[in-house]
User: Fold this.
Amino acid sequence: MSKLEELVGKVVRDLSVGTRSKPAVTYSSPDAEGYVEIFLQDETGMTVGFSVDPSAPEAEVLYEMAYRIPTAYVEFYAVGLPLVPGTERPAAPRVREESVVWEDPNESGSWSCPVGEYPSH
Assistant:
């Protein structure tokens, strides 16, 4: 499970730059097909969950998390994160070769940042 926790940590780290709130994260045991449910819960007890296949390529798993976890933040905290620097637009995850980056969805190629390395200032 530690690889999943590491990947979730990258996404949550990037999102925490824009808010002090951080959901609790829990993981189910793998189901019969090997999928693991990831649950995020805010301080009120509201829970959002999604499944991932931990045997999939790492970039695929990280992309799924970078797509799903920001959606949970919108539901929990009414904020789209991480923001494209200098804008109020939330970045979108994209797969580039073997890695996953945050990218400006309105101006493809103008700004990107590897997931887990969003600038903290």
Summary: Helices lie at 2-16, 58-77.
